UniProtKB/TrEMBL annotation:
Organism: Collybia nuda
Location(s), subcellular: Membrane
Protein name: Major facilitator superfamily domain-containing protein
Pfam families: MFS_1
Annotated membrane topology: Multi-pass membrane protein
Membrane-crossing segments per the record: 45-65, 85-106, 118-137, 143-162, 174-194, 206-228, 281-300, 312-332, 339-358, 364-386, 398-420, 426-448
Taxonomic lineage from the root: Eukaryota, Fungi, Dikarya, Basidiomycota, Agaricomycotina
Gene Ontology MF terms: transmembrane transporter activity
Keywords attached to this entry: Membrane, Transmembrane, Transmembrane helix, Transport
Length: 488
């Protein structure tokens, strides 16, 4: 185990996770795998529960519109025709716009200031939505909610990549993303309980859903200013030796690629065709994810259950999704493989939607909803780990993730308009199956392409005698570095 103590001046040298100017000899000998595992577990306890709570609140606040709809909002605000679908969709316009600028800001400013600030912003918007009692008011509120919330998901995904190696990040993303499934489960329970406040303070039950959940976000956001840690090099819960272990671990993982901000790294991400391939995969799996999040209560209700029972029956659906998300994330990291898990899980989800499409019995339809959720929810975490691993260098990784998540989230607009024809929702289920098939095909192509590029780089390194000792020559090349390898 390494015992070298990093001087204070060296800690400053890699405040932004790890500065590329820190040399190997400054870090001492590599730590053992036992020591690395111990430090990873310590970081998990300090980081993962916290970021999972943040994302739980985020997903709860964006998806509670579905609970509010069947709690009386649709009747009270006269949401006939496509009005509810439009209210759901406008969120994604500003949400997608905010993600790339937010991830750049996260790199330029401290995460412990940026992330809590955007949380305060959307928590206030969410709270004030309880005063919206018109169609136009809800549209305006959802636009501002999307703008404020847009930075959290890509920000936390990027934030985790600054603490963990590429091989370790899928299970961590899965754990924090599983908060979305927990939000879906608790959203139904919360909505069922909060509905009983109908009439208190002159507000309807659905208005209290917005108010209470918004206030909870603001409270947690204020606490986050004091709890959130910025980077491994400045984390107070890590000892100097543990900081050295993380520094060595991250430096070896990024093969000495640049960690500082430069505009050229932004353009590397924007001009890389592989970014758009990952974006296509993400859109294909995100459309059914948001369809389930926004319409699960409606789908269950149309199976023949009452509104109150529909709220409660969404809980097992999302609990099943939570379990499968964490399980698949752990397996994906264990085998350091992404594409096959996305393909396999997408096929499972496709089967679930096929059951929903073909079966009339409420029990069979409910089982289909569970299978569809268990299949598609794990793909998000695995795909984001794949997209992040395909981008070399901190800034390029941050921009790539923001582009994939941001532009990919425009798929949420599609999700908002495909469940229009109850009771069987043929268009919605059929569209979900089609987009899952698209992601399966694109994942196969992406795996083939990454394997091809890796073989070409292997041949180049062997021919030119390139090894890790020359990584300083390629530090600004990002994914194009001959030392960089893609995860399949």
């Amino acid at each position: 185990m390494a015992t070298y103590q990093i001087p204070d001046e060296k800690l400053k040298a890699y405040e932004d996770t790890l500065n590329e100017t820190v040399r190997d000899e400054d870090l001492g000998p590599p730590a053992s795998e036992v020591e690395i595992s111990r430090v990873l577990r310590k970081m998990d306890w300090y980081i993962l529960p916290f970021v999972s709570l943040l994302y739980l609140l985020s997903f709860l606040d964006r998806a509670n519109i579905g609970n509010a709809k069947i709690a009386g909002m649709a009747v009270d605000v006269h949401l006939d025709g496509l009005k509810y679908n439009i209210i759901s969709a406008v969120f994604f316009l500003t949400y997608a716009f905010a993600e790339v600028p937010s991830n750049i800001a996260l790199k330029l400013f401290r995460p412990s200031r940026w992330i809590p600030s955007i949380m305060v912003a959307w928590g206030i918007v969410m709270t004030l939505m309880c005063l919206c009692n018109t169609y136009k008011g809800l549209i305006i509120a959802r636009l501002f909610l999307g703008l404020a919330e847009g930075g959290l998901f890509p920000g936390i995904t990027f934030y985790l990549s600054l603490w963990y190696r590429r091989r370790d990040v899928a299970r961590r993303i899965a754990i924090f993303f599983s908060a979305a499934t927990v939000a879906g489960a608790f959203g139904g329970l919360f909505a069922y309980g909060i509905e009983q406040m109908d009439g208190i303070g002159g507000l309807h039950g659905w208005q209290w859903i917005f108010c209470i959940e918004g206030i909870a976000t603001v409270v947690v956001a204020c606490a986050s200013y004091f709890y959130m840690h910025d980077y491994p090099g400045t984390a107070t819960f890590l000892t100097a030796t543990e900081k050295e272990t993380v520094a060595r671990m991250l430096k070896d993982d990024c093969i000495g690629l640049a960690t500082h901000y430069d505009r050229k790294f932004v353009w590397q991400a924007v001009n890389d065709y592989k970014t758009y391939m990952q974006m296509g995969i993400y859109i294909g799996i995100l459309i059914p994810v948001y369809a389930i999040a926004l319409f699960a209560p409606t789908i269950v209700k149309e199976l023949g259950y009452t509104a109150a029972h529909a709220q409660l029956l969404t809980v097992p659906i999302f609990v099943a999704g939570c379990i499968s998300t964490v399980t698949i994330g752990i397996l994906s990291d264990k085998y350091n493989t992404r594409g096959p898990f996305i393909i396999g899980c997408s096929i499972v989800s496709l089967i679930g939607f096929l059951v929903l499409y073909t079966q009339e019995a409420p029990g069979a339809g409910y089982a289909g909803a569970v299978i569809a959720t268990m299949g598609v929810y794990p793909t998000i975490a695995v795909d984001l780990a794949w997209a992040g691993a395909a981008a070399g260098g901190d800034v390029r990784k941050g921009v790539t993730l923001a582009m994939v998540i941001g532009l990919g989230n425009l798929g949420g607009i599609c999700s908002s308009f495909i469940y229009l024809t109850p009771q069987r929702f043929y268009i919605g289920h059929g569209t979900a199956m089609g987009t899952l098939g698209f992601s399966i095909v694109l994942s196969v192509i992406t795996m083939w392409n990454y394997n091809r590029i890796n073989k070409e780089k292997d041949a180049l390194c062997e021919r030119e005698g390139i090894d890790a000792s020359r990584r300083e020559e390629f530090k600004d090349m990002g994914s194009e570095s001959p030392l960089f390898r893609y995860t399949l």
